[in-house]
Amino acid sequence: MLGKLFKHEFRNVGRVGGMLIAISGVVTLLGVIYLISPLFRTIVHATDDTNWMLGLVSALMGLLGLVGYTGMLLGMGVGFMIYLAVRFYRSMYSDQGYLTQTLPVKASDLIIAKVVTAGTWMLIMTIAMTIFVSILAGIGFSVVMDVSIWDMLKTIKQSYQTINEYLNGLIGTALTRTGYTIIVNGIGGSFTTVAILFGAISLGQYSWKNKGMMGVIAYLAVRVLMSVVNGIFNAAVMVVNQSRIMEDPSYAMTMTSTQNLVKFAVSVVFAIVLFFWSIHIVKNRLNME
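Predicted structure:
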């Protein structure tokens, strides 16, 4: 039965997630077509005085387009999270919840299916958006710098290796470690974010009225509490390493990866607590509208 839950959840959530990815892909494709068009190349590489106004207008339009494109992706990400939150609330704690609770499955299976499916789609969207931005930025830089994509990638690789070796010799760390930390945060963060979001919505069941609004307030409160806990742990890390930082100020740069790991660890702890708390609420304090 758990497999059927996953299939049902993945298909239904995927309709919205897939639609958002498709829209982003189409917008990115239109941006790529413009970047590789003769018009963009002519505007970018215009050097005579008669075209300076055209170049200025193009730069402003390009900046506005970039801001609009970034805003669109961020808006889709936030919108998808809101959709997941509303869907979870309706399917668990509103009128639809009566049907959900009649399914012959355990409360833990319901929460697992919803968290894992939503987290997976959050990860898929994050990967897709990262790819779209990388493609658009890469082609844009390639045209502006008038170099081929392959030459640009070779230059980036060589620069990365040089910076990596320099940092490793200077402060005993490397960009690779930071990259691994970012990857771990990106993958795990999708699932912890969803678990915390759904857990906060479940906390809204403790209210007799306005359970949905109480869930929003609970989510904001959890996020504030996480920030406080994260700040305390990071301050402790800095205090423990204070003597070493005083001797070698560059050592503070190595704290970035540690601080990111601390932040991720705090998110994992909160996600686990709220995950099991959600199961407890579904089992013992279900109070559907």
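Summary: The chain has a mean pLDDT of 78.
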